Amino acid sequence: MNVFRLSGWALSGLLAIGLSACDSASTSGHTAEVPDGGASVSADRIPTASAPSSYVVPSTPPPFPMDTSMPGRPARLPAAARQKSQAAARSFVLSYFAAYNEAIKNPNKAQLIGYGSGRCAACYSHGGKIEVLLQNKWHGKSDFLDLSELKVTQTGDSSVVVQGIGHELPARIADKRGRTVLVGPDSRRHYRFTLSWTHDRWFLDAIKTSATI
Fold this sequence. Notes:
Number of helices: 3
Oligomer: single chain
Low-confidence stretches: 3-10, 16-71
Distance between the termini: 33 Å
Mean pLDDT: 73
Shape: globular
Strand order of the largest sheet: 1-8-7-4
């Protein structure tokens, strides 16, 4: 059983928040076979459009409606995230990533519905990553991301920008037998979240990241 430790490229093709790497991997539409060799493969030896362990990637992003017109609300949204305030906006971001971590450990796209607007490309991408886990019958064995130092840096009549540090944890992805098949990075990035207040609630409009810090 080969276990792959991926850095940089890491889980970007599967779970990463960053749009450039994860979008190219999530729409490549192929099945990549396990390379021959030892138990670890450096990122620069893995083609951008490939991934180990017979990793099945949908040819197109799966349907994952998250439009603002949807009546549904996040199932576990805390009361602290339901107000039109800067503190509530920060709490909303934390709630989303708590749901995302849980959706990785217990793959279920429904946990993410109600957070992103129709403009949030990263939110759609995250749903696609969960779909990959479901198709491969994989799951996360630990949290993928920890956020800290969140602060509101811009405000408007019905929008805010929240920025902070995201610690992409060395998450392990396991198969249905519990065997580790992928190991994520241990890196930190700047995160920028754009939220809008509409229909008396917050929605994520965009999630962007910087290079590793």
